[in-house]
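Title: Comparing notes on inverse folding

I've been comparing how different people in this forum approach sequence design from structure. To keep things fair, I'm posting one structure and asking everyone to reply with a full sequence. Here's the target:
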């Protein structure tokens, strides 16, 4: 088969020159501007929270511009939490799906790049058996049967004159970035959900223990009152009132136990395990530490860090590139193709004495009347506007989450301080009654009442302590983790 090297060189030169001369349709992507505000809440930005004289009651300071540790949950000081989150990051099926989706987007980009950036080269090898009768051409003679063998190479390439292929690749690249940020957001959300569930489990365990002690105290108080009624020292209505109070307290235990078990089920599933097979750690509040230093990013830094904002930005980039693709369709399309083949009557002569056949084709097409193309351009522009508006929605939502977290940290610290003071007063009152009872100045009934008040105060304090931990985790999540 004869080959003309000069023809090949001319073809490649044409392809290279046309590619260099090509322009790119549509506007280049510009990153959305960051928020112009410098703070999240009205008034003076908070610098620290109130402290409380109790466990998990330390004052927390906000440090603007501090880098956020990727494993922010380690600041809570729970080795069980650290191990469970690492376990979940490796085994959670939702993260596995997000990783697979990212790989799919990467391969789609590679596939499109391979089919548009480079010429397509195909090789063919075939044979056919034919019977030709001379009578079809008005000639006499017997019909002839023969075999025809052919082998060839074909090259085709569509020149990207308007940059439509480059814009399509740009869109796929931006969509890959969107999937990458979605994966980061899923990892952040998973860590935050596990942290919240672990703290909830610890809070419920503490409250259940406190209420069980309260039930025991109220039950003892009821038995003592019934004995006093039998001795004529109390009115018959007193045990009824105490029994009603006891049953109301006892009725709260099943609901708390249900929530505790549900939190354990959630922790198991988030780690990619069935609830019945997982050994969920017995999280308790005394195994957590309240971080005293919390990071705080400026709004302009926040939009360059939060995964959901970056994912929304990638969608704007995608829509911008797809608008360029729609614009490029309005311009002429130039396709080049070349083929070189050999035909012979026998396979042995195919690559030696066969007949060489070559072709070089260039085709330029321009839509003269196609109302659909301008409509596609307008639709792509509308999609770009929608993506830009959705980006603003995501940014505003992120600013709100940070603002809510800052206010929650401040107000919940104040609430803990008040509850800690109330608990301290209840414990002081209990200690005073215990001393009076030891000296015979207070009855055992008064001691039981003081114990009930102390336990009731303790239940609210446990919830406030856990809330400080939840608020800290919420701020880390709101800042992008």
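Reply #1:
Here's my take.
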């Amino acid at each position: 088969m004869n080959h003309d090297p000069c023809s090949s060189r001319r073809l490649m030169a044409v392809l290279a020159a046309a590619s260099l001369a090509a322009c790119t349709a549509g506007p280049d992507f510009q990153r959305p501007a960051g928020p112009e505000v410098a703070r999240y809440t009205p008034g003076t930005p908070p610098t620290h929270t109130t402290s409380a004289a109790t466990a998990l009651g330390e004052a927390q300071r906000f440090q603007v511009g501090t880098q956020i540790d990727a494993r922010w949950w380690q600041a809570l000081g729970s080795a069980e939490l650290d191990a469970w989150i690492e376990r979940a990051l490796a085994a959670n099926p939702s993260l596995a799906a997000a990783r697979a989706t990212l790989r799919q987007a990467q391969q789609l980009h590679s596939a499109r790049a391979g089919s548009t950036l480079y010429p397509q080269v195909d090789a063919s090898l075939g044979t056919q058996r034919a019977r030709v009768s001379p009578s079809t051409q008005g000639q006499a003679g017997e019909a002839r049967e023969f075999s025809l063998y052919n082998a060839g190479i074909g090259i085709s390439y569509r020149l990207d004159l308007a940059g439509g292929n480059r814009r399509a690749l740009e869109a796929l690249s931006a969509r890959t970035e969107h999937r990458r940020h979605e994966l980061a957001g899923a990892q952040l959300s998973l860590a935050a959900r596990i942290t919240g569930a672990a703290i909830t489990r610890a809070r419920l365990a503490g409250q259940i223990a406190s209420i069980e002690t309260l039930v025991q105290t109220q039950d003892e108080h009821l038995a003592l009152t019934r004995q006093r009624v039998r001795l004529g020292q109390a009115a018959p209505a007193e045990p009824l009132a105490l029994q009603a109070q006891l049953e109301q307290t006892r009725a709260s235990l099943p609901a708390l136990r249900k929530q505790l078990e549900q939190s354990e089920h959630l922790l198991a599933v988030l780690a990619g395990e069935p609830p019945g097979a997982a050994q969920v750690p017995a999280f308790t509040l005394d195994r957590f530490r309240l971080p005293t230093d919390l990071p705080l990013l400026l709004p302009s830094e926040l939009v360059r860090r939060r995964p959901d904002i970056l994912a929304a930005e990638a969608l704007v980039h995608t829509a911008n590139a797809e608008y360029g693709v729609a614009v490029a369709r309005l311009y002429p399309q130039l396709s080049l193709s070349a083929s070189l083949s050999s035909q012979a009557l026998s396979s042995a002569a195919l690559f030696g004495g066969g007949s060489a056949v070559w072709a070089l084709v260039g085709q330029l097409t321009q839509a003269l009347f196609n109302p659909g193309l301008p409509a596609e351009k307008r639709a792509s522009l509308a999609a770009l506007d929608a993506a830009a508006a959705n980006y603003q929605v995501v940014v505003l939502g992120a600013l709100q989450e940070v603002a809510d977290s800052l206010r929650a940290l401040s107000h919940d610290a104040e609430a803990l301080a008040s509850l800690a003071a109330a608990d301290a007063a209840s414990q002081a009152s209990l200690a005073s009654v215990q001393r009076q009872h030891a000296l015979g100045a207070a009855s055992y009934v008064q001691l039981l009442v003081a114990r009930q008040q102390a336990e009731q105060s303790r239940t609210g304090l446990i919830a406030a302590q856990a809330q400080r931990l939840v608020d800290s985790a919420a701020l880390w999540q709101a800042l992008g983790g």
